[in-house]
Amino acid sequence: MSSDEAPSLSEPRKRNRKLTVLYRALIYILFVVAIALALITFNLYGWYNETKKDYQDAFLRAQYENDKNNVLINENETIKSDYQILKEQYSKILIQNEEILEQIQELKIKTDELEKMNKELVEDNIELQNSLKQAASIGIKPLNYTSFEGISSRDSIERGEYLGKFLGTFYTPSAIECGNNKGITRSGKPIIPGISIAIDKDYWPFGTVFYIKGLGYAVAMDTGSAIKGKYRFDFAVFDRNFAKQLGKDYWDVYLVKLGDGKVDNISL
Fold this sequence. Notes:
Elements: H1 6-136, E1 161-171, H2 175-178, E2 196-198, E3 209-212, E4 216-222, E5 232-236, H3 240-246, E6 249-257
Parallel strand pairs: 1-5, 2-4
Antiparallel strand pairs: 1-6, 2-5, 3-4, 3-6
């Protein structure tokens, strides 16, 4: 081989080397690119998973808020419905209240009328009692007696506790009935016509105030041999004919005040 052919034989080798280096570089670049792509893909996958999780969390929160909002909407509708019912009921109550106020006003007017009528009846009752007690004082008077001054006007009649029906009779403080005409009751006080009554002292102490329907107020001041038992009284008048006309009958009796055995101050 001549010296002139040697360089031509090395040219292919040089090209092969260059190609080899080039291939190696290309492979290295492709490897680096593949690694980079793999890293990018991995990062993208991680980002995708995080984004997916965030999206799911956001979706769940949105769904929760939506459900919560639906609950609030339902509650609001319920409240609106309840409010409407309460409003209607309130309107009815207002109407009923106005009706009640009208009824109260009517009742007040009727009450005023009844109070007026009651006052008139009380005054009539007092006048009738006073008339009866004046009638009881007409007749033969004993040596000692007390004239009743009359019951003053009042707003109501204090009847007290209802005791029941008593058998009532009428007597005069005369010598024929009492053995003397001194007019002194067993309580030691002078008799008061239309007020004094004889009772059984075992049941009613002197000074006890009764209300006898039809006769008015009376005070236990005397006793009598025929007056025995809890439901018995003898009413004092001065005229024997008047006593006979009143006769014997059952009367509704009320206890106004229980006495203490003394007749010091008669207050009706």
